Amino acid sequence: MKATNLAELYEVDTLSWEPVAQTLDRGVDQVPGTSGPDRHTWWLATINADGSPHVTGVGALWQHGALWFETGASTRKGRNVARDPRCTLSLATQEFDVVLKGTAAIVDDPEVVAEMAALWAVDWPCRVDDSGIALTADFSAPSAGPPPWRVYKVTITGATVLQPVEPGGATRFEFD
């Protein structure tokens, strides 16, 4: 991993990735009223066909050193990552703000889809559908489109972290 201090001008130390990873491993609650000033929201940015950005809130999970989200194939984000898998996911926590960049891919492994469904089901009553590789539920965010919802794994290639609390700092990480 390569770390670049973006706050050297202010004589602030390079941040360490370990506290960020520990916070992500612990999980960030997206249920209103449970964390942050009210909750935490993951923001997914994809690339539209005309090259402009598309940003939307998603129910993402950090698991196994990767980010996971679900959406319908016909949604804008689903169409965007099918055409160009590059994307970023952003999150603000009490300890830091982070933008993670990587590439998204549909997951076709029924065991992995079932594992992610079980994790999402803690806060959202989803389940694996009859295909074994997609999710369904009685409801979801309108931006997810109608079921079935496919599971996407975002393989992280880099991150930019801002620490808004003392001692502060900003660091860009590039992962091998």
Could you name the key traits of this structure?
single chain, Pnp Oxidase, Chain A, alpha+beta, 176 residues, 39% strand, 3 helices
What does this structure look like?
Strands 1, 2, 3, 4, 5, 6, 7, 8, 9, 10 and 11 form an eleven-stranded antiparallel β-sheet that branches. The model has no long low-confidence stretch (mean pLDDT 90). The protein has a single domain (2-174), classed as Pnp Oxidase, Chain A (Roll), CATH 2.30.110. With 176 residues, it is an alpha+beta fold. The protein contains three helices and eleven strands, in the order βαββββαββαββββ.
* Uncertain stretches: none
* Inertia-based shape: globular
Structural class by SSE content: alpha+beta
Largest sheet: 11 strands, antiparallel
How many strand segments? 11
CATH architecture designation: Roll
Tell me the fraction of residues in β-strands, as a range: 35-45%
CATH topology: Pnp Oxidase, Chain A
Work out the helix count.
Answer: 3
- The CATH homologous superfamily: Electron Transport, Fmn-binding Protein, Chain A
User: What assembly state would you assign to the polypeptide chains in this entry?
Assistant: single chain
**How many structural domains does the protein architecture include?**
1
Radius of gyration from CA coordinates? 17 Å
Which class in CATH terms? Mainly Beta
Element pattern in H and E: EHEEEEHEEHEEEE
Tell me the span between the first and last alpha carbons: 6 Å
The overall average pLDDT, rounded, is 90
Helix content: 10-25%
